[in-house]
Amino acid sequence: MHFIPLTSETDFESWRKAARALALNDVTPADVTWTVAGNEPELFEPSTPAPLLETPRRTFNVSAKFVELAQTAILHRNSTRFAILYRLLWRLRSNHDLLDVAIDPDVSQVAAMAKAVRRDEHKMHAFVRFREVGCERESHFIAWFEPEHHIVELAAPFFARRFADMAWSILTPDICAHWNGHAVSFTPGVNKSHAPSQDRLEETWRRYYASIFNPARLKVKAMQAEMPKKYWRNLPEASLIKPLIAGAGRATGDMIANAATEPHKSQKRPPMPRKHLAPGDDVDALREEAKGCRACHLWKDATQTVFGEGPQHASVMLVGEQPGDKEDLAGKPFVGPAGQMLDRALREAGVNREKVYVTNAVKHFKFVPRGKIRLHQKPNTLEIKACRQWYERERASVKPELVVAMGATAAQSVFGKITPINKSRGRLIELEDGTKALVTVHPSYLLRLPDEAAKAREYERFVDDLKIVAAQIKKAARAA
Ligand code: URA
């Protein structure tokens, strides 16, 4: 009997070397016992040293396909995997095409093990949730994960690429992976008590999850196939799943009841003639030009520039903060949860969104990645200033009679200085060139309010502010 100890559960190199030597020395699979250092069952401890294998003079080649398959399958938790792989290798010596026989029991077992490993790796990529400990420059992100197979070393490079600029650790019962911004290292496994159970972003995370949940698209079986229940215990958003599913029917009914109404045919304005605009001055040309904007660093991580949109000669321009996750992907302003809130309030105030020009103070999405989610970050003064040229050029091009600044970032851009919302809110303020400006809250402020009564009150105030917009549009229509 040949007793082959491997240094770890994932020690493919030692397995490969030993398997090669064994096969070249014609050692049959039945005469080999594979173990992992530290795990040797007493029963198999060799009482006499294993016969030394001669350095083989002959050689044989296995296909790259086998090496790749074995490298993956060896990460499976099945304790007999080393033996199964050796048996397959042994048989491949005389049957080179064996891997093509999918119904062969060894081939199908190894293929199934490799598939399970790849699936587990994919689940780890999807379901690791980091929590922050420490803050600012000292912050470190720690996640707890319980892999089904030995995939931590396989999956770690993905996290190093994805979260290159944050120091993180992924703790698991088998092995822990750590990234310090330069290299991945590994330490022995720990238990769950070493991982934080929540952090300051927990609530934001849950709110985000609730806001992207679409009750009309709910498919419980498909969702559970993608996100099996065993992962739920380590997902901060999992506590929301049951209530969201339970309330999905009612929420869908509400969505149908509040669906956007088609504008009445006669309200649809024919395209505005482009008069007195120098080539390059209309918003379409500006939008094209802004696609290549590099005025600050935000373009690097964003998907695209999200420029304003609306009629070239809209009498009202709405200014938000910056595109969010959904806007960044769609390339259009206010199409995500804040956009839905804005649409609802505009409808209630009697404003047809198609008649207003909607834009943002900052045209690229600023975020920090958290797992699969990109968490919105408020733009700073440098970023607002760098982007202000686009707002100014949009305003010069559209020439609105009223500019509405929604939130503090928009107000800073519209007035060219930090402008507290509460002091200026709800009244018309004249800008230097005579254009009127109105300051109100940002719709996402309403989404964030935790208290239902405050939410309803603030929403009413927001609608009241937008009624000033409705009046302005009517006035402009009468004058036209
Ligand atoms: N928030 C904004 O300020 N703008 C958008 O386009 C979306 C969310």
What hetero molecules are bound to the protein chains? uracil
The CATH topology name of the largest domain reads: Uracil-DNA Glycosylase, subunit E
**CATH architecture identity of the largest domain:** 3-Layer(aba) Sandwich
Q: Can you tell me the overall shape?
A: elongated
- What is the β-strand count? 14
What is the total number of structural domains? 4
Question: Could you give a short account of the major beta sheet?
Answer: 5 strands, mixed
- Total number of helical segments? 17
Describe the structure.
This protein is an alpha/beta fold and 480 residues long. It has 4 domains: 2-122, no CATH class; 128-194, no CATH class; 202-253, no CATH class; 283-479, Uracil-DNA Glycosylase, subunit E (3-Layer(aba) Sandwich), CATH 3.40.470. It contains 17 helices and 14 strands. It has helices at residues 12-24, 64-73, 81-92, 105-127, 152-162, 202-212, 220-226, 238-246, 248-257, 283-290, 325-330, 337-349, 381-398, 408-415, 421-424, 443-448, 452-479; strands at residues 2-6, 32-36, 131-133, 140-144, 168-171, 175-179, 184-188, 316-320, 357-360, 367-370, 373-376, 402-406, 428-430, 436-440. It has a 5-stranded mixed beta sheet with strand order 3-4-5-6-7, with helices on one face. Strands 9-8-12-14-13 form a 5-stranded mixed beta sheet, with helices on both faces. Strand 13 (428-430) and strand 14 form a beta hairpin. The chain is elongated, with a radius of gyration of 31 Å. Residues 263-280 have low confidence and may be disordered.
